[in-house]
Amino acid sequence: MSVNEQFQPTIVAFCCNWCSYAGADLSGTNRLQYPANVKIIRIPCSCRLNPMFILRAFQRGADGVILCGCHPGDCHYTTGNYYARRRMTLLFSMLDFMGIERGRTRVEWVSAAEGAKFAATMNEFVETITKLGPNRRLEDLRCSKE
Amino acid sequence: MQQRVKEKALELLRNGTVDRVIGWKTGEFFYDLTPAVFETAEEIEKDFVFSGFSGANLSKYAIAQSRAAGKTAIFLKPCDSYSFQQLLKEHRILRENIYIVGIACEGMLDMEKIRAAGCEGVVSVKENGEELIVETLYGDRTLSRKDCLLERCAVCKSKKVVIFDEMLGEQGDEQETARFDRVAELEAMTPEERFAFWRGELSRCIRCNACRNVCPACSCEKCVFDNDKSGVRNKAAADPFEENLFHIIRAFHVAGRCTDCGECSRVCPQNIPLHLLNRKFIKDINELYGTYQAGADMETKSPLTDFTTDDCEPSIVHERGGVK
Amino acid sequence: MQRIGVFVCWCGSNIAATVDVEKVSQVLAQEPGVVFSTNYQYMCSQAGQEMIQESIHKYNLTGVVICSCSPRMHEATFRKTCEKAGLNGHMVEIANIREQCSWIHKDKDVGTEKAVVLGRAAIAKVHLNAPLTAGQSPVKKRALVIGGGIAGIQTALDIADAGFDVDIVEKQPTIGGKMTQIDKTFPTLDCAACILTPKMVDAAQNEKIHIYSYAEVESVKGFVGNFNVTIKKKARYVDETKCTGCGLCTEKCPQKKVPNAFNLGLDNRRAIYIPFAQAVPKVATIDADYCTMLKSGKCGVCSKVCTAGAIDYKQKDELIEQEYGAIVVATGFNPIKLDKYDEFAYSQSPDVVTSLEFERLMNAAGPTGGTLLRPSDGTHPHTIVFVQCVGSRCDDGRGKSYCSKICCMYTAKHAMLCREKYPDTDVYVFYIDVRTPGKNFDEFYRRAVEEYGVHYVKGMVGKVVPQDGKLKVQASDLLGDRQLHIDADMVVLAAAIEPDETARPLATKLTASMDTNDFFTEAHPKLRPVESPTAGIFLSGACQGPKDIPETVAQASAAAAKVIGLLCKDSLTCNPCTAQPDELMCNGCSSCEKVCPYGAITYADKEFRGPNRTTLIRRMAQVNPAVCQGCGACTVACPSGAMDLKGFSNKQIMAEVDAICR
Question: Domain range holding A27?
Fold first, then answer.
């Protein structure tokens, strides 16, 4: 990477099928821009997100991972995001405990109507991660791109 | 007490209360006692030992033995009883096939600490109240028992045997402990310092799986790391920091189920303080979702299979104190 | 190894303008397992679909990746396409390169690069896809309608008419809802009771309809086709089966000072009461808050006078469990509380009333017997001021930001009725806008102005001050650009309407979503307006948004049609993407069972072959695929990873992660 060339982070966004994926679609429908660094993986519910997926992403060179789900109380499956909320809170706290920068992980509740929020969140997240720079702390060097 | 435990084992087997006993067996050295199943009085007479080095948590062995024909006796120290009850709660042990003898516990000894106190060529260790008489090739030494306890015993959370059929010695109580102090110290560090700390610790991991094999919570029929369908099956540790994944996931899988018995750190041949990972989860759970002790009872829902509608958001990790 | 075909859609220029589709299909052709890759203008068109089908045959494809619009748009379409060509629909994966790529990126290089990555992720996933078939789950042929107002009644009648059993749960002692309190209806001015009460009787007499009055929904379990609902029948201390509705008790009860909720507290009733003469069921109810017998054990008059022996002071709340295939929410609305609008002196003067109170004052069965009299002194008011939009279209945080929709019309009706009955009254209506978009609505409003001489003034009332038996109204006339001071005898406030307070807790029980105003949200605002996003939950009437009676009835019938469509089916096709435990790895620990919102997981002891020809019995998780909705909560709760989710398996998701992070 040359000095002039801005660091382009790899960002994985896990979106629940019912709210956040639809919210992401809506931000597309409304032509709201956010950086191409964000790649979305569709999961049925935020509670499907296994901490292993997040760690795997980091290992394989992701610089930031974000989970988007229905707002608490609005989960398509009633309670999924409540479990996800606890799991992610504890996992993020553990990653922080191990010295992984706090900004690299995030959870945001995005409804199907919040296309603007989705785009804004992604813009903000990409900005945060770009400032943090490449993820070096949790990367499996065998998988690194260089 | 040491003699009473052995006598109880003999008695239970001789009077037909049980068909076998799960206890501790002498190893190559007097301090490396290992868990064992005794089926005859002779075996017990010969090999059964209960001493300050009977640190091993026997609860996990009840999973298989409770499914064997007949009845099995098991000796549980207070902290072991939490593990046992947690396994019972998870339907892993058939309670009706187990006879539990609770043992009052004054803490188990750490040979490393005895050595660290300058004792070389240790031949035997005799316990005499608050004192340890360490017989070495170079003469006897007297040490304070308190100074030679295993880390988990030095910060013992409970002297209470939570489940038993019979009790040897006095039943104790839960107690205030400083067991989260080290976690708090780490929390107060900068992320860089924490990263450096864990990198230093975890890089030593040789992936021998001792922590996994000894852990009562890690008693899965097949570990996720051995399961091809999990997508994380791996054994090699080509990149030292890949162990992050293993240890974070292991800690996460036992979160809400780990009773903090400390076995992982006791058995780690590389002396990695693995219990700190578990305690971090326990500390967070206590702080964020209310105090919870796995194995303390049969009813309370594990915090990770429970929720309230006004739980804190994951962003609390960013907002909580400590260095950013 | 799968044989994968990649189909990149241009979507006209929607995708092709910012994604180099040719390049995407070329690059993806190099991915392992891809045996055919192409691009086309409109993949979803007949020609595009035929191209996919031909390719499946020609290249013997076992997996298909379509790079196109969102799977929410055409996943079902392409699955059907492939199924027609003999390929299982679940061997199709969509890479969303329109909503999540071409539409959000302007730079063609950036868009193309991202489209390739998204395509790779889909290819990586499809490598691990397996054919899935959906199971079937039976449909309980009974519907529940929550709320017995005009919406609930109409829905229930229509469902019953189609031959299905339907239960109405109504929290009040009688069905009928708000419409029972209304005097006349716009724009025809026919009497509300005359058109409503026959429907109430129809509902009561219909063999297919069962009414649980004075009852509430306690809990809801299950899912579309198979809801298990617990209904709490509150104790009314009167045996419904014995009470004849003669009303003797309601005349003899010595406790006379109970505010009459039906007349909005404008008069009093007894502690035992029948809300109004045409109540259905016509059964007395004891108000436990006021009954001296229930409070102190001394009285018992009603029990003595009841010849039917229907009074039962020991009656307890009763829980009834019932299974339903579909649930209709018809919880209706309430006027907002006006405590934040004290500039209109609502709390200071009894002559400042809400529109609903005004309905009761005009109603022949109301507290004044239909003669319009001032509540304060019982005199005939000569000057009446109507204030519209009290709490509606309100941005200052005190009221609602939305338009309550019905106020313009009922205010016109009130004003017209006043002038008609009492031509000597002066009637003023203050408004922000007059909104009359309904059939014959504007004509109605113009009649009020032109024929009945109602003074419509554009402007808001600033203050109402009770003084010397009058209400001093200060208002602005925006068109005349002047301040008005009116000495009014009565002021009528068109209070905004809001969803009933039971709606929010009910939505939680139903897991149906709501908007910020507590109105139920519809599955699609335009195309699925009477369905909740939660399958099997339907919306009827004002619980979904402010509505007048014709609209409510129309929506009620529409909801009924949707329910009938559902109940007509003998079984529903289940979600094929269900959780599945690996028996060899399951610990039987119950972690998964605890997080399953549907109770889809049960346990059974199963025999396994152990070492040395022994048999081991192990506790195993079992998933009911008819009940599992595929959320995946259990998959993460499972420590051994024995539980996996079909269609979103651990390996599939990790393959996507790997492809993206590559």
Answer: 11-137
Nearest-by-CA chain A residue for C535: A76
- Domain CATH for B60: 3.40.50
Domain for residue B173, yes or no?
no
> Are residue B115 and residue B245 in the same domain, yes or no?
no
Report the neighbours of A using a cutoff of 3 or more CB pairs below 8 angstroms: B, C
Asked whether C148 and C540 are in contact (CB, 8 A), the reply is: no
Chain C: give the shortest CA distance to residue B231, in Å.
Answer: 5
Q: Which residues of A touch C580 (CB under 8 A)?
A: none
The residue of chain C nearest to residue B65, with distances taken between CA atoms, is C616
Give the contacts of C616 (CB within 8 A, at least 6 positions apart). B67, C607, C608, C609, C610
Kindly report the pTM of this predicted structure: 0.73
CB contact under 8 A, A77 and C513: no
The DSSP symbol for A44 reads S
Place of tokens 């035992």: C272
Residue A39 contacts B where some CB pair is shorter than 8 Å: no
The answer to whether the CB atoms of B324 and A87 lie below 8 A apart is no
Largest CA distance in chain B: 65
Q: Are residues B75 and B134 in the same domain?
A: no
DSSP letter for B135, please.
Answer: E
Distance of CA C593 to the CA centre of its chain: 29
B interface test, pick of C589, C644, C648 with most B CB neighbours within 10 Å: C589
Are B16 and B160 members of one domain? yes
User: Which range marks the domain in which residue B41 is found?
Assistant: 2-107+155-168
Report ipTM for this prediction. Answer: 0.95
What are residue C475's DSSP bridge partners? C461, C484
Best mutation target, B83, B92, B223, B229, to test chain C (most C CBs within 10 A): B229
∠C634-C639-C643 over CA atoms, to 5°? Answer: 40
Residue A52 with chain B: CB contacts under 8 Å: 224, 230-232, 245, 249
Chain B: touching chains (3 or more CB pairs < 8 Å): A, C
pLDDT tens-digit map of C188-202: 999 999 999 999 999
Query: C32 Cβ partners below 8 Å, 6+ apart?
Result: C1, C127
B254: closest chain C residue by CA: C639
Do residues B195 and B120 both lie within one domain? no
- On whether residue B175 sits in a domain, the answer given is no
pLDDT (tens digit, 0 to 9) for every residue of chain B, 324 residues total? 788 999 999 999 999 999 999 999 988 888 989 999 999 999 999 999 998 999 999 999 999 999 888 999 999 999 999 999 999 999 999 999 999 999 999 899 999 899 998 888 888 898 888 889 999 999 898 999 999 999 999 999 999 999 999 999 999 999 888 999 999 999 999 989 999 998 888 888 888 889 999 999 998 888 888 877 776 766 555 555 567 788 999 999 999 999 999 999 999 999 999 999 999 999 999 999 999 999 999 989 899 999 988 899 998 888 775 433
